[in-house]
Structures are given as C-alpha cells and as structure tokens.
Amino acid sequence: MSALLASAGPSAYWYLTRSTGAVALLLLTLSIALGVVDVERWSTTRWPRFVLDSLHRNVSLLALAFLVLHILTSVLDSFASISIADAFVPFIGSYRPFWLGLGAVSFDLIVAVILTSLLRTRMGYSSWRAVHWLTYASWPIALVHGFGTGSDANSTWLLALSIACIALVVAAVLTRVLVGWPADIRWRGAALAGTGAFGLFIVLWLPQGPLGSEWARRSGTPAALLPHAHAHASIGGAQR
Predict the structure, then answer these.
(1) What count of other Cβ atoms lies within 10 Å of the Cβ of residue 227?
(2) What is the C-alpha to C-alpha distance for residues 206 and 215, in angstroms, rounded to an integer?
(3) How far apart (Å, rounded) are the C-alpha atoms in residues 219 and 232?
(4) Global pTM exceeds 0.90
C-alpha cells in the first residue's frame, strides 16, 4: 500500500487544499491588519466609517469561506486520514496531530469571533471586545499550522507569501503602536514585545523545523505515508 501511495502523484484535492489554505492565510492576514490599525479610525468623507467597517467584516467572512473550503478539500483528499472532527477538535487526528490541531484551534477561534460579531448588538460591548481579541491569537497559530502541516512548506512561493503576511502584520502593529505614542505605553510595549517574540520564534524555529531535514517524519506523519509525503515535498520544491 505504501509503495502505491509513493508512486501516486498529488491529487487535485492536494492542490486545492494548499491553494485554499494560502488564500485563507492571506485574507486572514488582511483582516488582522485592518483590525490592528483600527482602520475605522481613518475614515474620511470619501471612505466613511461604515464602508471601512464593511470592508473589514467582508474580508473576515471571505477568509472563513476559504477556511471551510480548505477543510473540505483536506477531508476529501485520500492522501491522509483527516475527518471533519479533526477540524473542530484539536489534537485528535492521526496525521501530524499537533500541527493539524493548531489549525483546529485557529479555526475555532475565528468561528467564535465571527459568530459573536454577528451577534454584537445582543452582547455587551466588553464581552464582544474580549472575544474579538481572540482574532489576534488565531493568526500566528494559523501561520504555524501552515508551516507545520504543509508538505511543501519550504517551497519558494509559500515562503514568500508567508513572509509577506508576517511583514504586513508587523507593519500594522508598528503603525498602531507609533500613532499616538507614548500614550498607553504599557500596552504598546506589550504589543511590540509580543510581535518581536513571535518573529524571533519563527526565525529560530523554521530552519530546525519545517525547513530542516526529515520534517515529515518528525512532524508526526504516519509511517505508511512517509514515502508519499516526501514525494509531495519534492514536487513542491521543484516548483520553486
């Protein structure tokens, strides 16, 4: 069975899974960046507040739609055994369970934020605001999930996209922190420290993790799928 898997090429679902995942990451990054800079504050007569607010909400909903497509194609792909439950319940899967579980955590956080946003008029502002902050946690978790789970995490296009997403979020954080400095310096300093710590983690982790040797095995790929996982990674690398 493993020899058959190793000789088989990636299915259409494999390409759809990685493409919808990449688009979902990009849209989630845009949503996070818009939220971090508090884009509604930059409203003008040409771009009134309700237009900017709708832009933020629609980008978030579009990101959720692509996340759903990403999950469905992952489940339909016969390469690995991934169930619908794996998308909602973290760390129960058999394929790269920790890294797949991070995706479930991120998805659950995003769903919680969007549901509470749709019910915002029925919730107290403080409760809604507390849940809304979960969006900021969902983005780094989703990014690490993509690196850890993706069979072609070291491909040039995916690395470039991920770096661009990181740069956009960092730029948004710097914009938010520097505008109005030094008021509320405590939370501004915490935002800078958190962003810097995550950036340092990515720089130190990637060479030893997804970009290092034998990542398919070390990440928790079932032994029967390892030859096929290496074939997928080789195809991704060949597209650099």
Answers:
(1) 16
(2) 10
(3) 15
(4) no
Q: How far apart are CA 228 and CA 234, in angstroms?
A: 10
**How far, CA to CA in Å, does 122 sit from each of 3, 111, 126?**
56, 17, 12
Which residue matches tokens 């390409």?
15
Q: How far apart are CA 70 and CA 13, in angstroms?
A: 9
Q: Say how many residues make up the chain.
A: 240
Read off the pLDDT of residues 39-68 as tens digits, 9 standing for 90 and up.
Answer: 556 556 566 766 777 888 899 889 999 999
Neighbours of 129 (CB within 10 A): 12
- Would you say 44 and 87 are in contact if contact means Cβ atoms under 8 Å apart? no
Asked whether the CA dihedral 221, 225, 230, 233 is positive or negative, the reply is negative
Give ∠ CA 78-27-10 in degrees, rounded to 5: 20
Q: What's the CA gap between 13 and 186, in Å, rounded?
A: 46
Output b/e per residue, 102-117; b: 16+ Cβ within 10 A.
Answer: bbbbbbbbbbebbebb
Could you tell me if 236 and 215 are in contact, meaning their C-beta atoms sit under 8 angstroms apart? no
- Residue 83 has what DSSP assignment? -
Q: Which residues contact 68 (CB under 8 A, 6 or more apart)?
A: none
Which of 194-208 are b and which e, b meaning 16 or more Cβ less than 10 Å from the residue's Cβ? ebeebeeebeeebee
Note the pLDDT of residue 36.
84
Summarize pLDDT for 147-181 with one digit per residue, the tens: 999 777 778 889 999 999 999 999 999 988 888 77
CB 228 within 8 A of CB 6: yes
